[in-house]
Amino acid sequence: MVAKVIDGKSLVNSLIRRIKRDAEQLRKQHHIEVGLGILLVTGDQVSMADTGRVADLAEQAGIKVHLERVAQRNVGRRFYPTLEEYKRSPFIQGIYIQLPLPTEIIPLSEVMARLPLEKDVAGLHFLNRGMATYSPHEVDKIIHPPEILAVRETLKECEFELKGGNAVVVGSDATAGTVKMLSNFLFDKGCNVKLLKFSNISTTTENGQRRTLRSLDNEKIEAPGIINPEGEAVITCTNQAIWLSSSRLKPKSIVIDMGYKFSRGRVSGDCDFTNVSKSASYITPVPGGVRSITHAMILNNLIELINRQMEIKEGGKSKGLKRRFHENK
User: Fold this and answer.
1) What stretches of the chain adopt beta strand conformation (E)?
2) What mean pLDDT do residues 29-56 have?
3) pLDDT-wise least confident of 230-234, 292-296, 323-327
4) 173-212 burial string, b = 16+ CB within 10 Å, else e?
5) Which residue range forms the structural domain that includes residue 217?
6) Binning pLDDT at 50, 70 and 90, where does residue 1 land?
7) Do 101 and 156 have their domain in common?
8) What is the reported pTM?
9) 250 with 231: CB under 8 angstroms?
10) Is residue 2 assigned to a domain?
């Protein structure tokens, strides 16, 4: 058996075509020139590549891109003024801040507070992050992080039924926020979710000692444990190079690889692609796959934000947080 590879390229192309139609409709019906403000702190190769890809896709979709590259030596002087400029500009309907940031200079908590909720295309605002933990019956509309929406679109391509399906999500300390929101999102959709922490996945050696798994950059440790005994989907987001082998998966599993590790001039994911693709039913590659879909979902969120603003102007009203504490109903 050879797994079907879910390459993000074809899915991204279809998403961009739809986004382009939506942007054109906003231009014709409401005279809105859709604009996206991107704020990048230079220095990290992966971040610069991601920003370039988002900008390219935006231009393909007919979206005007305002890109500010801030050198690390000028972060203190340029970052917040640019954010305020994007916030006030009527020509920018969405703001994308490329992560990671130099948090010793720019605390992420402060960025989350300063980012305008109505222009948050990446679900970074603290209200979007907070409301993601509530049941969908308690909140109305939030902007989900594009990574989570990319997983949703990928699972659709894998013919995975969220309601009643079984999924294992594996994360690490570095990706804890993303995997928690992803697990909550899948749970809200009716999925049976098991969340695993990478550092707790261990193997027993011949002398009976337990050893924690390490990245293949350091050492290859084969372990007998199957992490998804119920079968179906495994979503891994640990950024630990090719630790997931077929010996850890039930045959015919759906494997969604969100990991991204750049070292020695090459990119790898969490999954041992060559090994796992021989027994899985579906698999996503790295590079490509989920990460490329994530870039398109940023633009999808931008269109969603504009449509919500139009609803408000036309008399609609966002319900926001529905829960009312101390009410007995």
Assistant:
1) 4-5, 35-41, 64-70, 94-97, 166-171, 192-197, 202-204, 210-212, 233-237, 254-257, 261-263, 266-268, 282-283
2) 93
3) 323-327
4) eebeebbbbbbbbbeebebebebbebeebeeeeeeeeeee
5) 146-290
6) low
7) no
8) 0.85
9) yes
10) no
